[in-house]
Specification:
Length: 256
């Protein structure tokens, strides 16, 4: 009954209610306005939108990105000499344990993995990420504060604070690696983002050890009918995949 209620509720809340309304408009165009071409165009467009709103499609497409790289089975023998942690959003003025300013959910997950790796390998962490907009947080600086509160020694923290996208993450991080004579970085970022991030570092002549984290879907999905209900979360996942695909294309062919 719980699952059935969830399934039903999804059709009276956005985006489900809009899918229903557009199918009604398609039926109206077909039966009342006697315009089958318009009706078919509306119905096909709505059906595509519906598919993009389902968890069934979302877990397939985002899973295809997340499975491109896997963490090394034995990271301790990888020879990594620095951990590069990519930013992904921060809020400058929200309350936090150590004052104001906090990382968003994805970079916070990335940071947790970086801290655990640092404790295991006893190597420095290079934080990469600047202030993207005037009302967002300075990512590397906020991450540094969190790392210190978790017990990471300040001498083990390097910062790159100028980048506002992944291309710049790679460019400015490469400069810091060269300055500090570091040659085998372990790259930590969200699994869906890793493929593009590795490409950006390759274009800077940096051979990284990918360590994906912040997974969003299981590696062994099991079908359930509720995965066919329209969800805003599923739409967000599918849009993320489309964005990553477009950005990877631009990076590969234009280097930006």
């Amino acid at each position: 009954m719980v699952y059935l209620l969830k399934f039903g509720a999804s059709w009276i809340l956005p985006p489900g209610i809009f899918i229903v309304l557009f199918f009604v408009i398609a039926a109206y165009a077909f039966k009342v306005r006697n315009d089958p071409k318009v009706a078919i165009m509306i119905a096909i467009t709505t059906f595509i939108f519906y598919l993009l709103c389902t968890g069934f499609i979302a877990e397939k497409v985002i899973g295809s990105l997340e499975n491109v790289y896997s963490p090394p089975a034995d990271i301790e023998s990888s020879g990594g000499d620095v951990i590069i942690l990519l930013g992904g959003g921060a809020l400058p003025d929200v309350p936090d344990v150590d004052g104001a300013g906090a990382l968003c959910s994805s970079p916070a997950n990335r940071l947790l993995t970086a801290v655990r790796l640092q404790r295991k390998l006893n190597i420095p962490i290079l934080l990469s990420g600047g202030q993207v907009y005037s009302d967002t947080g300075a990512e590397a600086k906020i991450a540094s504060k969190v790392l210190e509160s978790l017990g990471v020694d300040k001498k083990d923290i390097l910062m790159e604070t100028k980048s506002i996208n992944t291309t710049q993450n790679a460019k400015f991080s490469a400069e810091i690696l060269h300055q500090n004579n570091l040659h085998k970085p372990i790259l930590v970022t969200s699994a869906f983002h890793m493929n593009r991030a590795v490409l950006n570092f390759e274009q800077q002549g940096v051979d990284v050890i990918p360590y994906p984290t912040d997974y969003m879907v299981t590696h062994s999905p099991v079908f359930h009918y509720t995965k066919l209900r329209p969800q805003s979360e599923a739409l967000l996942f599918n849009v993320m995949v489309l964005q990553e695909t477009l950005r990877t294309f631009v990076t590969r062919f234009f280097g930006i």
